[in-house]
Amino acid sequence: MNICVFLSAADLNERYTRPAREFAELLGKGGHTLVWGGSDVGLMKVVADGVEKAGGRLLGVSVEFLSDRVRQRSDEMVVARSLAERKALLLEKADAVVIMVGGTGTLDEATEILELKKHGHHTKPVVLLNAAGFYDGLKEQFRRMDEEGFLPLPLTDLVFFAEEPVGALAYLEESFGTA
Known about the structure:
With about 180 residues, this protein is α/β, with parallel strands linked by helices. It is built from seven helices and seven strands; from the N terminus they run βαβαββαβαβααβα. It has helices at about 15-30, 40-55, 85-95, 105-120, 135-145, 155-160, 165-175, and strands spanning about 1-5, 35, 55-65, 75-80, 95-100, 125-130, 160. α1 (about 15-30) runs parallel beside α2 and α1 (about 15-30) packs parallel to α7 (about 165-175). The longest helix has 16 residues, at about 15-30. The mean pLDDT is about 95.
């Protein structure tokens, strides 16, 4: 399975890098391909290193203005002209999406992927990996949107919230009947 991971390129605390390393190891050992932003810095590097070390494939999709951060050791690397093109390519190349901790870029990617799913432009499973409770506030906001009728489909059809990496991958593998 090609699993797109949206996440930060920042250097982060162990409470965030530990779950990222765990997920990367599970992904690689499962024989899956990491589809990610292509950067070789911060949490993106942590995940790419972990997938590579565990035997998985790396498919990066970077963007021209970040080409100086591109990981040199990848099975495949695509460089998009714009962030919009990058997001479209990431989704196109993925069978599923996992959203890890991140800043405004990650939040932008996450909300666009969910908006596209909400409107039926894709049916790929989306998991929000809530490492160290990072997305507790967003989870509550989504629940409120669901309860108050802002979502045209049930929240459970839109996104799965996983508290641990093993739960995230188990959900994806079950969605694809490979569990």
